[in-house]
Amino acid sequence: MAAATASAIGVFARGSGASAPATSIRGEAYRYATDGVYAYNAVRVVAEGVGWDAVTLFVAAPALLVAAGFIARGSVRGRLAALGILGYFAYQYLMYAVFWALGPLFPLFVLLFPLSLVGIAWLWSTVDAETLAAHADGFPRRSLIAFGFLAAALLLAMWVPRISTGLSGDLAGAGLLGTPTLSVQALDLGLVVPLALATALLVWRRRPAGHLLAALFSVKAVTMAGAILAMLLSAWMVEGSLEVVPFAIFLGVTVFAGWLAVGVLRSVH
Fold this sequence. Notes:
Oligomer: single chain
Radius of gyration: 19 Å
Number of strands: 2
Distance between the termini: 30 Å
Strand order of the largest sheet: 1-2
Structural class: mainly alpha
Number of domains: 1
Number of helices: 10
Strand content: under 5%
Shape: globular
Largest sheet: 2 strands, antiparallel
C-alpha cells in the first residue's frame, strides 16, 4: 500500500507542468519543474518519473497484492513472483531516494526501499532452493543464461559511452539534466549488471540458488523494462518526440523477459 500511495501521489500530484530555466553548478543549462510533488527536478526527469509511477500504481502494486494472496495460501509461485516485484520496488525507491530533489515523498522513499529488501530476505528464507531446483520441470535454463549475459552487455553498451561522454566534459551529451552525477548509471552498473551476471552464472552452473535468482531477475526485468517503456512514452507526451530505438529495444526486452518469467514460474511444482 505504501508503494501504491507514493506512486499515486507522483501521478496525480505531478503539478501543472510549469517550468523555469536553470544552470547547474557544473554549468549545464536545463529546465526544471516549478510545482508539484517533484518540483525542482528537470522537466524530462519528472516526465519519466510520472510514467514509472503509473506502472507501479497500475501494474506492480496490484501484482504484489495478488502475489500476497497466493503466499497466504502457501504458494511457492507466489513467493517467487513477489521476489521479483520487491526487487523492482527496491530498485525504484532507492533510485528515487538518491536521485530526486528533496521533496515531501523523501521519507516514504527511504522507508520503501529497505522494506523491500527485508521482504526479499524473508521470502528467500522461506523457499527451499534445493527442493525447488530438484522438482523444476521445463525451467528455461539456456534462455536465462543468454538473457543474463545479454542484459549485462546491453547496460554496459548503453552506459559506458555516456559515462565517457560526461567525463570528457560534455554534460548535455551525458544527460546529467542538472544533477551532479550519473545516479542511474551507477545503480545499473553497480546493482543490475552484477545481478544479471550472477543469475546467468548460477543457472549455468546448475546451483539451486540460481532458481531463486532467476525468478527475482526475470520478474524484475519485465516490470522494469515495462516501466522504461512508460517513461519513454511519458517523455514523448511532454517533449513531442519519441526515442524510437530505445523504445523498440525495451519493448523487445519486456516481451522476452515476460516470456522468461512465465517459464520460470510455470516450472515450479
